[in-house]
Amino acid sequence: MKNVIVIGGGVAGMESSAQLADMGYQVTLVEKESKLGGHVDQWDFLFPNHRPAREIIDSLKQRLNYKVEVKLGTEVESMQRNNGQYAVKLNSTEVLHADALLLASGFDLFPAQKKEEYGYGIYNHVITAADLEEIFRSGNLRKVVSGNTHRIGIVHCVGSRDEKVGNEYCSKVCCVTGVKQAIRLREALPEYEVFNFYMDLRMFGRYFEDLYREAQEKWGVQFVRGRVSEASEDVKGNVVVKVEDTLAGRPMKISLDLLILLTGFIPSKGTSRLGDLLQLEFGSDRFLKPADEHLLRNHSKLEGVFLAGACTGPRSIAETITDARAAVLEIAAFFRDKVTVHE
Amino acid sequence: MNKFGYTISRDNQIDYDKVDRSMAAFIEKNEPTFRICIQCGSCAASCSAANFTRFSFRKLCLLIRRGLTDDVQKEVSKCMLCGKCRLVCPRGVNTRNIILNVHQALHKTTVYEL
Amino acid sequence: MNFDVFTLPFSVGLVFIISYFLAMCIQWIRNLSATERLLLVKGIFSFKTFTSIKEVVLESLLHRKIFRVNPLLGYMHMSLAFGWFMLIIMGNLEARAYNPIPIHPPYYPIFFRFFEPDTGTFKYSVFYEFLMDFLLLFILSGVSLAYFKRFRSMALGMKRTSKLKSWDKWALAALWMIFPLRLLAESFTSGIYESGGFLTGTLGRFFAEFLPVEYLAYPAWWAYSIALGTFFISLPFSRYMHIPTEIVLIFFRNYGIRSSEKINGFADIEVKSCSRCGICIDVCQMSSSLNQQNTQSVYFLRSVRDRSMTKSLADQCMECGRCSQICPVGIDLNTQRYLARRRVHEEFRSDFSYLPDLQTRKTDVIFFAGCMGHLTPSVIHSMKKVLDHAGIRYWFMDEDGSICCGRPLKLAGKAEEAAQLMKKNRAAILASGGTTFVTSCPICLKTFTEDYDLKQMRLYHHSQYLLKLWFEGKIQLEKQMQKAVYHDPCELGRGLGIYDEPRELIQRMMILKEPENTGENALCCGGSLAHQEMSSVQRRKIAFDAAAKLTIDHPDYLVTACPSCKKTFQQASPVEVKDVAELVYAAIQDRGRKTALKSREIAAAEAN
Question: Among A210, A288, C257, C436, which one is least packed by beta carbons within 10 Å?
């Protein structure tokens, strides 16, 4: 029986593992954290339909049951190819052998303190979108707003589309996340005004535009077209941001109770490390480069090494699931072709 | 005729057939990053001069690109060249050099070189 | 009297160069301001003249500073300069010893061997013969190094050597010919008369074996004279003008004359003093990191001299001061850049009449973060907390943004416009009645120190002020076992000479490691405000290269003291970048926590 090692236990890794197991391959899923779910496991509700993130993770976990060998708290130390097989050495000193590897090592969130002018880690009332999801989950939202100004700001493109931090690409999902979080904030704190500070609103997915309209129509979310240049803190602990309202053509200063930074995607440490270990190619955005951007999106340049999910660039959950399934098909095709050749 | 306080002003329209784009061409040649602005407004938001006067580097560049150079002289002379805008620009536009090239362009316009 | 028509090229050249140089001197002095001329007159009759003579010997003849940077290059310059000088002096003494008439025509000692082919023996004749040949050999060794350098610049440890223009080519060709021709002419003559020292004599006898030396000698003397004449005539238009000019530079500088914001005679002397040794090319990070070799000071000064300055050339410099630091002639290169920028940018005048009078507040201590400072809020935040902790009552002058200090305008060559900003800021500062002015931006501090005329108050960089607070016992610091590398910001270090205070401060909190390039030789982070044309890709390259060098020994922190450096390194450094103020704030918090813990322990112990 063919043997596949999937590295990374987020959405891409879980989905592809389950699918591969369903197809009758022997699958080992390696995850460095002590639990599965990746970033989505930290999330509260998802766009565009406000569905709890938990549902996705639970359903993916259920499908793994008994069919996939899951190794938690485990990291890959080295990978060696011999006789068409990969010997994967784990940090537990165990060595696994596989006929194919699937990298689903995903992304990290851009470290917001690198954008110092926004004051993350310096001011008390500057948080990231991920922090906000955690706050939603804990139900402590009222505790983090002071009630001074009754205003909350959401900054788009933090660490994305910014050559100053070396990330010139768009992280794709932050725009709609910003809209979603604005709605959730208005829902939870009806007396608060919520402002989205954006450069471009990229509502590319199905129903995203509806969500944008809902935010305006139903929730009165404010959209200011301008990128925040800097934030400071006033004596009361409010965050004061400076932005140009480019459509009004005037600079704008606004005090807020809370400033939320929509941090973008960067290749995860694991993605960079696995790419280095296997000497794979990276794109100019430092994510892994598929063998062909159109036709071989799940192939690496190495035979038997496949890619799925956000290790090849920012993706939504739905796209990640589609991508994971595509990778599974490619792996199956790879095994089938190999068998034919040998016979 | 009663105009209800409004007139249809022809000047309001950017007549691209008539505007003078020579300044834009001059700046683009000397500072290619003039092209890559995405109008995010970070420069104008961080601007030290904008604390005191109506000045938007973003708008200045846009107007030059559209060939609307009538107010450029007045506007550009407000810039203190502090360079904060260059540090915040997400596209790496070399803002200070654009200002200096606008200065040069204005000088060249007055001596009819442009 | 000894005369031969072949000496004419030399004599004409000599008369030309001497009159040209005198005319130049007169012009330089005329271009000095009245006060500067007074300095000159006072200086001449003072001890400074002796200091200058000493410096001329050490630098213009022995080239001590080039020696320090690059011994082989130093030897090359020294053998040519010192060797030639000694050859002239000893030649004169020899001629005088042989033929003790009161005045010789100047060419007589130069062509001594031609006029006196066989001197026989006179007092010390053997000594002179030996010495003159030895000196010639010494110079020739330098000349061969020069040949070698021109074709294989790497051989002298130089990555690049400066490129030439046509007058330079004439002068260079002549200079390269002079000493080999002298050798040939003297050897041929010695060959005819079977005279000469260990070099010319031996070589002469050798040539005489197979060459018709009696026919070759006279043309060789002609060629030697023509080479000398060509060199003298092309000298004022070539880089070799630096030879006489540097001497004037040394005297003027010792008399206290400097190039200033207005172009004076001294600025021109500096320009012409550049020997184009090219040392500035290798230290320039635009050369080492960006492989860009056409904007460095040597090329820049050449364009100033040729009057071919362009905006682009004037603007392409980070003004980090690394070249000024190492320049063997000691040219104030940042001021030269400023003067050139002034000229290329003078057409346009900005107008800051819109600026209101700034509001002021009565205070003793003023804190000024500067424009850039607002993009590193961690520094501002730390400063506020530390000042509060130390019980300092202060006025945060630019809390809501402020008028720029004016330094960036000045760096673009716009001093008059900068003065408008300075006037506004100065008025607000003075009206506060403060005595202490603290800024966390070295760029601002430089201009506050040099251009603001704030003699009423003490100006501090925040690192200096924090150290003062520590000395006064207002803050307590504790040493941790973490390692920190300190990066000297250009404007703070080379610009203002503040090297020790940040270090003293860091040493009280961490283990301070010095990187390879430190102090006066510190690298530039690449964030420079002075370079007007550099792309962000180039800046990043410089930043990454510099950060990699600084953190080569894997420190825990890369510490700096300038918002621009911090911002630039933040994206480029593999280790965390901190400002000294952040370290101090962290140290205070840490102590606070420990004290709280201790008091809790004590309370617990008491309860028991």
Answer: A210
